[in-house]
Amino acid sequence: MSKYKDKQEGKELDLSLCNLTNVSVRDIALIPKATSLNLSYNKLICLPSNFPSLTQIIRLDLSNNSLTELPPDFGSLVNLQHLDLLNNQLKMLPISFGDLPKLKWLDVKGNPLEPALAEAAGDCLNEAECRRCASEMLIYMKQIQVEVRKKQQENARKQQVKAAAREALKKRKQKAEKMSQSFGGDSFSFNAKTITFENIRKLQEDFCNERNWNQYHSPRNILLALVGEVGELAEILQKMQDFVDDVNDILQVPTDQIPQTS
User: Fold this and answer.
1) Residue 75 predicted with pLDDT over 50
2) Inter-residue contact 67 to 85 (CB < 8 Å)
3) pTM
């Protein structure tokens, strides 16, 4: 049984003037028929994070407390129509406030609201102004939701770009290191023990066959052709050295110099 059972009268659960510093959501939930909850004139500084689970609430009076914030998921009170926040210490409302689809009446007088929020709220001096406050506040908070989501998406995109840049730099470093190993000086050295006349002849035959150099007939003509081949090889090696130099430059780029998005 709920410890608040004796505070119920019909559809209203009146917990006002009880010197409460906290609220038991569990005990309120045990009285599902209470769709009107009065917590005014207590000493509440905040509400439990699971307070928005009380989705049966239609009218909620939190006036004359010391609330500095509302739960982030306050917008989950999908049946809330009437909300009294008079005389608290609220500066802002949670982003989810824009998700209160049935809110028709709102009073936020006596709160140190941020200027833009206070302007949207208006004076709340009478019934009509409190109804207008609810409407305007929902519009304002929905706009804030859009702006926040855009910013979140932009931040997510920037993080993806940074991650992609880091991954690209990592791959370029790995490729550079691999190329450096592949084209290091030792890789071009010969082992004298493996050089024999037969090996040289075999290499010569393979070399000539691949290039169809048998047409040159004489060693002199082959030598002349080789000179041209060596010239091309020298150009290739020079380009390769230029590439290695570029790679070394890449390896010197600090991580914090990865291109940033504006």
Assistant:
1) yes
2) yes
3) 0.62
